[in-house]
Amino acid sequence: MNITINGKKTTLAENPARTVESLLEELDVAQRQYVTVELSGEILERDAFGNTLVQDGDALEFLYFMGGGR
């Protein structure tokens, strides 16, 4: 399976049951509870991570929004 993660082409073993949630675990993404996921240009709701399948050719962005400043 070929996907793009944060602008980087990535090849993963085929897994037809791979969800966004399982991908985050598989890649050991830091602070998963705070990550926002954009899948092929659409921001996913957090409750959709567990049932949204990752397909060959998908583009994902893992985003962290930070507060602060003045």
Strand % is: 25-35%
Q: Give the fraction of residues assigned to helices.
A: 10-25%
CATH fold name, please?
Ubiquitin-like (UB roll)
Rg from C-alpha positions? 12 Å
Protein name: Sulfur carrier protein ThiS
Domain Cyclic nucleotide-binding: 23-70
InterPro entries: Beta-grasp_dom_sf (IPR012675), cNMP-bd_dom (IPR000595), Mopterin_synth/thiamin_S_b (IPR016155), Thi_S (IPR010035), ThiS/MoaD-like (IPR003749)
Pfam families: ThiS
Structure description:
By secondary structure, the chain is mainly beta. The protein has one domain: Ubiquitin-like (UB roll) (Roll). Helix content is 10%, strand content 27%. It contains one helix and five strands; from the N terminus they run E-E-H-E-E-E. Strands 2-1-5-3-4 form a five-stranded mixed sheet, with no helix packed on it. A hairpin with a 2-residue loop joins strand 3 and strand 4. The longest helix is centred in the N-terminal third of the chain and has 7 residues. The radius of gyration is 12 Å and the shape is globular. It starts with a strand and ends in a 7-residue tail after the last strand. 9% of the residues are buried. This is Sulfur carrier protein ThiS. Pfam families: ThiS. InterPro entries: Beta-grasp_dom_sf, cNMP-bd_dom, Mopterin_synth/thiamin_S_b, Thi_S, ThiS/MoaD-like.
